[in-house]
């Protein structure tokens, strides 16, 4: 890459660090400001922060790579994600914003789970916090793999050095500014991703004489829509659409709903967020499809399909613009890593350290412990990411399924079932997480493969967790009157705010 490209990246890095410093001065004097931005985040920042932290490096690398390899088969994952995101805004966002405040101003998802049952130190809090740290460490490593591949492919740097650079920048602004820094950088990063995912496929398509030439070149290697639909099995369709179920249980996404400044702002955030998501997903799919056509038509060598966006950025644009597009990939990667690190640190601080220590901790010390938590999770994720053979999409899919199955049904039951019990919550979390891990890692099939090769693990995990929650709540003890009263108070407050 040329000097102009490096200049663009340098400006981007400095901007992210500048935002982190600004947020440090604004909102990190207490733990509420560090973890939730004082619940004063605007709908615009909420929408793009939720979208950017959701999509991560797989949006610009994993999804185009899947489209490059499998054609329209990858489209069904995108449809499931759009449906799931919309359902999350409609079903979870308003209730979670109110309920977490009514539940003694819960700052984290595990704390909400515990206080939902009137027990600030309930065992469900420790279990869910442990699952968050486990799966987010895996999820963070997926982002680092994307960063390592970017620096190796675009800058001809060592893969391990790329990991360190990616982690160094994102940890710096997350340590400094907490949730406000993460949300503000996500907003900027979301804007960069939006522009990049329109520019790249449109410019690449311009080298063809039209849709007919492009589609003929593409469908030499991958199935077209009609062929894809004809060969699609019910199990494959359910597995792809099942990605949408994961949204209800992703802590780094639903925590945005807890931080928005009011319930009335959620509809604005939903309109902005869904518009952003639809455009960017179409752009990512288009990048992969045009990429395979470009390779067939013009002899472009693509050694790793997940780097097609990078190749287009270097091939088709002026170095200054190329640097901007590289920044878009880093934006996607860093927005998710920073969110995951912050949520992990929040759980380590608020839900593990505070509960285990059993003593009051002043705000300043709590923020310091949270910063140490960010660093600790980052180091473990870095060690996992050293295995370069992992694909971004496979790492993301595993962590996405783990959260979706462990927390998704429980979040919905917490918000919609008054008689939910603490025992049922524990049963739902553990059964969902264990089912996903069994599906991914235990080779029970005759050829030594795991059950995830048959159907995406979120489907059985979500079903088992839902069944456990319903059965234990139905046939177990009734919750206390105080727990029911809290539920009623939250419902009344929501109705009041929405009227």
Automatic annotation (TrEMBL):
GO terms for molecular function: L-proline transmembrane transporter activity; proline:sodium symporter activity; sodium ion binding. GO terms for biological process: proline transport. CDD domains: SLC5sbd_PutP. InterPro entries: Na/Glc_symporter_sf, Na/Pro_symporter, Na/solute_symporter, Na/solute_symporter_CS, Sodium:Solute_Symporter. It comes from the Bacteria. GO terms for cellular component: plasma membrane. It catalyses: L-proline(in) + Na(+)(in) = L-proline(out) + Na(+)(out). The chain crosses the membrane at residues 6-24, 74-92, 126-147, 159-180, 187-208, 228-248, 269-295, 307-333, 369-386, 392-416, 423-442, 454-476. Keywords: Amino-acid transport, Cell inner membrane, Cell membrane, Ion transport, Membrane, Sodium, Sodium transport, Symport, Transmembrane, Transmembrane helix, Transport. It is found in: Cell inner membrane; Cell membrane. The keyword Amino-acid biosynthesis does not apply. It is a multi-pass membrane protein. Belongs to the sodium:solute symporter (SSF) (TC 2.A.21) family. Catalyzes the sodium-dependent uptake of extracellular L-proline. This is Sodium/proline symporter.
């Amino acid at each position: 890459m040329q000097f102009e490209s490096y200049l663009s990246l340098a400006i981007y890095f400095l901007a992210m660090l500048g935002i982190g410093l600004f947020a440090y001065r604004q909102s990190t004097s207490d733990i509420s400001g560090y973890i939730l931005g004082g619940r004063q985040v605007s709908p615009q920042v909420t929408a793009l922060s939720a979208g950017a932290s959701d999509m991560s490096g797989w949006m610009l690398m994993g999804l185009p790579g899947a489209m490059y390899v499998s054609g329209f088969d990858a489209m069904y994952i995108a449809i499931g994600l759009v449906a799931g995101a919309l359902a999350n805004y409609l079903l979870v966002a308003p209730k979670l914003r109110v309920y977490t405040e009514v539940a003694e101003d819960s700052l984290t998802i595990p704390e909400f789970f515990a206080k939902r049952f009137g027990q600030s130190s309930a065992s469900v809090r420790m279990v869910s916090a442990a699952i968050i740290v486990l799966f987010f460490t895996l999820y963070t490593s997926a982002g680092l793999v994307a960063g390592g591949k970017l620096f190796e492919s675009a800058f001809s740097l060592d893969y391990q050095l790329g990991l360190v650079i990616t982690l160094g920048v994102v940890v710096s602004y997350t340590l400094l500014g907490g949730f406000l820094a993460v949300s503000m950088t996500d907003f900027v990063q979301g804007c960069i991703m939006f522009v990049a995912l329109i520019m790249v496929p449109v410019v690449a398509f311009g080298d063809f004489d039209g849709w007919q030439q492009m589609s003929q070149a593409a469908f030499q290697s991958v199935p077209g829509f009609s062929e894809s639909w004809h060969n699609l099995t019910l199990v494959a369709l359910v597995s792809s659409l099942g990605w949408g179920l994961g949204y209800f249980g992703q802590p780094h996404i639903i925590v945005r709903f807890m931080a928005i400044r009011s319930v009335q702002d959620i509809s604005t955030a939903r309109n902005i967020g869904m518009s952003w998501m639809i455009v960017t997903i179409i752009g990512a799919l288009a990048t992969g499809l045009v990429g395979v056509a470009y390779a067939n038509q013009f002899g472009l060598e693509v050694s790793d399909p997940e780097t097609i966006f990078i190749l287009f950025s270097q091939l088709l644009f002026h170095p200054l613009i190329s640097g901007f597009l590289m920044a878009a990939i880093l934006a996607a990667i860093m927005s998710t890593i920073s969110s995951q690190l912050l949520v992990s640190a929040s759980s380590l601080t608020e839900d593990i350290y505070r509960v285990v220590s059993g003593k009051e901790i002043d705000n300043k010390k709590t923020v310091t412990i949270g910063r140490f938590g960010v660093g600790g999770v980052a180091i473990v994720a870095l060690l996992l990411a050293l295995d370069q053979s992992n694909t971004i999409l496979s790492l993301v899919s595993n962590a996405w399924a783990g959260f979706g199955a462990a927390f998704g049904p429980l979040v919905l039951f917490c918000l919609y079932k008054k008689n939910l019990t603490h025992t049922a919550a524990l049963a739902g979390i553990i059964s969902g997480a264990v089912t996903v891990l069994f599906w991914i890692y235990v080779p029970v099939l005759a050829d030594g493969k795991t059950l995830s090769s048959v159907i995406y693990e979120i489907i059985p995990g979500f079903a088992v967790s839902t069944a456990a929650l319903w059965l234990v709540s139905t046939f177990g003890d009734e919750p206390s009157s105080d727990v029911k009263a809290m539920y009623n108070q939250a419902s009344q407050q929501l109705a009041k705010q929405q009227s």
